[in-house]
Specification:
Layout (H helix, E strand, L loop, with lengths): L1 E4 L9 H20 L5 E4 L2 E3 L4 H9 L10 H11 L5 E7 L4 H8 L7 E7 L6 E5 L2 E6 L5 H10 L1
Parallel strand pairs: 1-2, 1-4, 4-5, 5-7
Antiparallel strand pairs: 2-3, 6-7
Helix pairs in contact: 1-2, 3-4
Length: about 160
């Protein structure tokens, strides 16, 4: 599993969206660690340590949203190099990422990888749709993540 967490301020409507995205990223990473599956977590500034739950949480606590010229495509390009063995890649992002940006970013990932996106929009209802080959979940509450992932796996 590779989790690509956007830290670009331009991808989020507000701080609350970003905080939800960081929490989602942490939950995905911790679940993968608990199940003894490999996890790579990438942010715009580099990779986080996904080898142990405490190190991952420590690294996530230092992640900050900031302005960046590097977009989702650049993050995907990094994942293509550093997470080339991942069978599933999950983008975790805010409401301001456009379908065009997500489509362009997913095109930079290795062929044959399952790609999903979790768009964090606090207080929104859980929903699922597709953009090209990418399954997109809109998530309003962290507690909805298990159901969201179940919906994604049933699709």
């Amino acid at each position: 599993l590779a989790v690509l967490l956007s830290t670009r301020a331009e991808d989020y409507a507000d701080e609350e969206e970003f905080e939800l995205a960081v929490s989602v990223c942490g939950s995905l990473g911790l679940q993968a660690i608990k199940e003894d599956r490999g996890v790579t977590v990438l942010v715009h500034s580099g990779s986080l340590r996904g080898d142990h739950h405490t190190r991952l949480l420590d690294d996530l606590s230092r992640v900050e949203m900031g302005s960046s010229r590097a977009g989702l495509v650049d993050l995907a390009r990094s994942a293509g190099r550093s997470a080339s063995d991942a069978s599933v890649i999950a983008f975790v992002l805010g409401s301001r990422v456009t379908p065009t940006e997500l489509r362009a970013a997913s095109a930079r990932l290795p062929v044959g990888v399952t790609v999903m996106a979790i768009q964090c929009v606090p207080k929104s209802n859980l929903s699922r749709h597709s953009i090209g080959e990418v399954g997109v979940l809109t998530l309003g509450r962290l507690g909805d993540l298990p159901l969201a992932l179940k919906k994604m796996s049933e699709a």
